[in-house]
Amino acid sequence: MKKVSLWLLNFFSITSSVVAVKFLDHYRIGGLFSDDIHKAAFQVVIDNLNKKWDTAPFFLIGDSLNVSFTNHFHVQKAACSLLDKRVIGIFGPSSRHTSSYIQSICDNKEIPQIETHYNPNVEKIQSDINLYPHAAEIAYFVMHLIREFTWDTIIILYENNDSLERIAPLLELNIEYGVQLVFRQLEVDQDGSYRAALKIIKKMSVTNILIECSLDILEEVLIESQKVGLITEKYRFIITNLDLSTLDLERFQYSGCNITGIRMFSTENENLIALAEKIKTTPHLIEEELELKRIMTLSTVLLIDGLNMFYDVIKELSEMSKIKAEKLKCHDAISWKYGSTIVNQLKSKVYQGITGRVSFDLAGFRRYFTLDLLELTTKGLLKVGQWDSEEKSLITDRSQVPQEESDVEHSIFNRTFRVLIVLTAPYAMLKESTDQLIGNDQFEGFCIDIIHELSVILGFNYTFIVQEDGKNGNLDRATNEWDGVIRQIIDGNADLGITDLTVTSDRERVVDFSLQFMNLGISILYRKPEPVPPSLFMFLSPFSTRVWLMLGVAYIFVSISIFIMGRLSPSEWTNPYPCVDEPEYLVNQFSIRNSLWFTIGGLLQQGSELAPIGISIRTASGFWWFFILIMVSSYTANLAAFLTVETRVTPFKNIDDLAKQTEIKYGAKRGGATASFFHDSNLTTNQIVYKHLKEHDDQMTDENEEGVRRVETENYAFLMESVTIEYNVARHCSLAQVGGLLDNKGYGIAMQKDSKYRNEISTAVVKLQETGVLTKLKIKWWKEQRGGSTCSIQSKKSEAEALDLQNVGGVFLVLFLGALLALLGSFIEMCVILYRKRKVYKKPFKYLLWKELEFFFQFGKNVKTVGRDEREPVSNQNNKVSF
Q1: How many CB atoms lie within 10 A of CB 727?
Q2: How far apart, in Å, are the Cα atoms of 717 and each of 279, 530, 704, 707, 728?
Q3: Regarding predicted confidence, which is higher, 222 or 817?
Q4: CB–CB of 336/111 below 8 Å?
Q5: CA-angle at 441, arms to 435 and 447, nearest 5°
Q6: CA distance 188 to 173
Q7: How far apart are the C-alpha atoms of 544 and 825, rounded to whole Å?
Q8: Does residue 821 lie in a domain region?
Q9: 640 and 723 share a domain?
Q10: 356, 573, 728, 846: which one has the fewest Cβ atoms less than 10 Å from its Cβ?
Q11: What is the pLDDT of residues 694-729, one digit of tens each?
Q12: Per-residue CA distances from 612 to 567, 590, 615 (Å)
């Protein structure tokens, strides 16, 4: 325990001449510090202020006390001694352990207290002003940064309870976003180092690390991390200590490790450097030979900003009204009447200092500030962005990052990549060979050829590794853990992963993808629709029902029109006996029956023995025949299509129809990207499909091949990616794709997050697209190799086939019905005539019918005798006119 030592700084010698002339007022401010740097800074800044504002109506006297870091009694005693000397404000202490005691004293006496360190114990500030950024705002920025980096699992290394309190808000990442947080304390081992704790981290698969510790141990933690192999290109660090820029990080600059840090001010500030030089030359520090960066810590700079801001406030108040300092005692109840005014003025003050904007909320907390985002490069720590706590926005600018780091032009050349594949046709398959093959020679397929083409362009080597469980990479949302190819890429067990690996937002959070080498979407695989049996009356199909009805109406209308025109036209009344010059009567050939017969003859393109004479009927007949020409031609052309083209009908046409029905089972690959699409989609139909998939796990499959087999053997539809459907349809001739694409996505090559080879590989993929190599490879593996031409050969057979009786059966039926009706009509006609002539013959109807039938069955007789009685008188003949 340190003894409390009083170090009184009297500036009467500096300002004695000024006092003698101008009789200036003086104000005393106190400082409670635990280290010599703060005491020296306190002295230098007050000295500069008194010299800078030589026209001010006052000058400052600084009393700084060297106090213990943890001894409450000694700190309290020092504070009371300052109050006895009429101080108008107290800076410090530098320890959170003793701060609450000083705060209670200052609140009781209404003396402004200015702090420059993190103090989690302050809940409501009365006389306390804390220039340190509010911990909650810093934590919010760190959360934003983690989400920006798309980290899904993080190891958080913390030093002690103080560190744990500062990072406690990060738990929201797990609650709100499902980010897995692994907390590990930086415990000292038997050797006095942190190596044992860091070795445990090394054995874990997580590569994202956040370090929250004090500046005292930060450098040692980084050095030990490098010794155990954590400072490599595989790992990514976020360091939350705001004094990271004060450390010498040269030994880590060329390790390839991604180290991100933050700061509130630039150590390259010229005014700050000049001030640090003065602080370094004070009597108490000159012997320690400190580096300038170790002097320019955040707490020191905040002390500088606090003194400048406090001076400005006192100057403004003294110009308005005189402030009178008072001697106070800790043991009485008397408080300073000007203290609350100064505190309120400080809270409302907006000051632009070395740490940027200094302002406070109503409670006295500093919530509005800016932070610089730093990144360790081969040139040291560089600013790559800035965070505004008020706007909650991060603006990044990597233009200052060395070119060799942001775009390594030849880094991929002659490198050997471990390429992870999944044995899925046609992307990667074992070669069908009688010889024993080893290494890369044992594989073939679309993705195998792509890697070969990329290696030719970029000049790298590769070794294929098979993903034994056959999984592309699924996220277990309960544990937030990945499996399959994605897990291997995250763990660094493979450099590249290529298969039918769909680029999704979840996967892009944990790995990087090249540009997509194949575009696709989700569709439905189902059996080819069965041909619809031809209808018996298919010959009626070329015209719709309305057209047939209108055709019938036109036939009746034209027939009646011809009948009327025939009656009106004089030309149609002709002499039945051309040899007689003056006939007794004229006849008209266009009776109702003949008009109907004439029109139907034209409709069937057969004509009749009737020949129109009148101009009007000939005109009407011409238009009727033209109409018939067009109608018959259209009917004939359309009939050919209906008789020769098979009509196929599917039980559903799209995903909406499939979701509404219950007879056909349907499913997808369990845990695949297709199932994830329906899980994440907001469309009502897709949510219905996802609910069905979730409730019917027995309809899900582990592999695509199982889904294809079930489609062939069951009443089952399988949801899968369109390119895989295309591959299977070319080999399973009974299958077909139903409906269009439900989404638009693609396959990409997976690699570790922030891989420096991503741009080169993506550029090479674009080159393969532009040169048509990818198209040729798809034709090769989809339509040529491994039975790709099976169904295409079958489809080349002649499509012209003989018509079956089912196709023309309706025509025969109409013929037979027509003949039967005509036969029945002739019998009825015979019966009607015999019935009429029963009185002429004076014979019963049955007798006459029997005689007629008896003659009918005498097939050898072709001549029928007509008696005189059977001739009708002239007056009974129709369509005759007597003159």
Answers
A1: 24
A2: 79, 15, 12, 8, 14
A3: 222
A4: yes
A5: 130
A6: 28
A7: 30
A8: no
A9: no
A10: 846
A11: 888 888 888 888 888 998 888 899 988 888 888 888
A12: 12, 9, 8
Q: Are residues 779 and 700 in the same domain?
A: no
Domain hosting residue 571, numbered range: 538-644
Q: Which residues contact 806 (CB under 8 A, 6 or more apart)?
A: 533, 534, 536
Co-location of 659 and 571 in the same domain: no
Residue 799 lies in a domain: no
Give pairs for 634-641: CB < 8 Å, separation 24+: 634/542, 635/542, 635/543, 638/541, 638/542, 638/543, 639/539, 639/541, 639/542
Euclidean distance between CA atoms 573 and 190, whole angstroms: 135
Which CATH number does the domain housing residue 220 bear?
Answer: 3.40.50.2300
Two tokens, residue 217: 């141990």
Orientation angle between helical segments 298-320 and 36-52, nearest 10 degrees? 30
CATH no. for residue 640?
1.10.287.70
Q: Going along 436-478, which residue ranges are E strands?
A: 443-444, 461-466, 475-476
Whether the pTM exceeds 0.85: the reply is: no
Q: Which residue has the tokens 């763990």?
A: 491
Numbers of helices and strands, H then E, in the chain: 31, 34
pLDDT in tens, 341-383: 888 888 888 889 888 888 887 777 888 889 999 998 878 888 8
Q: DSSP assignment of 664-700, as one string?
A: SEEEEBTTSHHHHHHHH---HHHHHHHHHHHH-GGG-
Together in a domain, 100 and 178: no
Is the domain of 256 the same as that of 395? yes
CA 399 – CA 406 distance, rounded (Å): 9
